[in-house]
Amino acid sequence: MSATPVLAANSVSMVFGGLTALSNVSLRLQEGQILGLIGPNGAGKTTFFNCLTGLYSPTTGNVQLRGQVLPTDPAAVTVAGVARTFQNIRLFPSMTSLENVMVGRHSRMKQGPLASLFHGPAYLKGERDARDRSRELLEFVGLGTVHDELARNLPYGDQRRLEIARALATDPKVLLLDEPTAGMNPQETEATRQLIFAIRETGVAVVVIEHDTKFIFSLCDHVSVLVQGQLLVEGTPDVVRADPRVIEAYLGKPPDEVEAEVRQYAEEAAHGGPESTQVMQPIRDQDGHEGGNR
Ligand SMILES: Nc1ncnc2c1ncn2[C@@H]1O[C@H](COP(=O)(O)OP(=O)(O)OP(=O)(O)O)[C@@H](O)[C@H]1O
Fold it and tell me: What are the start and end residues of every segment in region (Disordered) (predicted)?
């Protein structure tokens, strides 16, 4: 029998009024795994993340962390061990990098309101520890030199990495990244790929939503493809990119072409980063509507 997954979504459906955004979507994330979630615009990827993190209460189905059903309360889900970043960066722009990470750390602190009011020894030690851990995390994500910089003054790629540091400050078992490389240049994208490998090395399992399929296929152990709110295909990158349904609904090109692109991407990355990380153009249906990846 296989081990209990660190995160399991069981037949999750989400209906908004008359729109079924997700229909019976299941997912198994094993310890130490990096799982990619791909699919055309509007497929339901972010809605699924919102269900996994308690922001939405699924219409049917549930989400389990190490076998325990998670509550539909984002703060409680964070404390349980699921952290996330957002498609649109959500930092505190007028706080420093260090302060932003410390906000994440505070979800782990045990002092009650009285301790913080009187700033007793336990509170002061907790603050010191939170500051030290936050500094470590800034180093870990490659922002060791910008502790005191206001978040709003950081370059875009650094803001995305700061969000990851803040999520890691909650000591998650599972990290969900919603389009972590959106807007990044090729070098930043490659640095993010290496950062995600490093995060996995620390024992955190990762789920990544991305439109850049070369990034996903060269990063993930397992890929799930959502189309129109349904799980179309899942499996290893090799299996997924060769599946005719994925090619038709999403990739729009033959598997050997995709495989060659991924191989070239990995080779270039090994030699200091790809020259260009192109995000595929949308597939359009016969009416000209976008149906494919960005
Ligand atoms: N709060 C909401 N209320 C009503 N409809 C919603 C809500 N959130 C999402 N939807 C709808 O659910 C569908 C799935 O949207 P979702 O944002 O999850 O897709 P996505 O795969 O993340 O897309 P993208 O790649 O463009 O980010 C869309 O039709 C969207 O309009």
Answer: 267-294
Tell me which residue has its CA closest to atom 3 in ligand 1: 16
The domain limits of the chain are 1-81+172-279, 95-171
- Least Cα distance to 130 among 97, 93, 104, 148 occurs for 104
Q: Could you tell which of 16, 212, 216 is best to mutate to test the pocket of ligand 1, judged by most ligand atoms within 8 Å of the CB?
A: 16
How does pLDDT run across 228-238, given as a tens digit for each residue? 999 999 999 99
The reply to whether ligand 1 has any atom less than 6 angstroms from the CB of 46 is yes
H-helix or E-strand spanning residue 40: none
**3-state SS, one letter per residue, for 41-55:** CCCCHHHHHHHHCCC
Is any atom of ligand 1 closer than 6 Å to the C-beta of 39?
A: yes
Whether ipTM > 0.90 holds is yes
Q: In what order do the strands lie in the sheet with 60-65?
A: 19-29, 7-16, 60-65, 68-69
Cα gap 173→231, rounded to integer Å: 24
CATH of 1-81+172-279, one of 3.50.50.60, 3.40.50.1000, 3.20.20.80, 3.40.50.300: 3.40.50.300
Q: Judge if pTM exceeds 0.90.
A: no
285 phi and psi angles, rounded to 5 deg:
-80, 180
- Distance between Cα 88 and ligand 1 center (Å): 14
Which pLDDT belongs to residue 127? 76
For 57, phi then psi, to 5°, come to: -95, 110
**Which atom of ligand 1 has the smallest separation from the CA of 39?**
21
Can you read off the two tokens belonging to residue 24?
């019976």
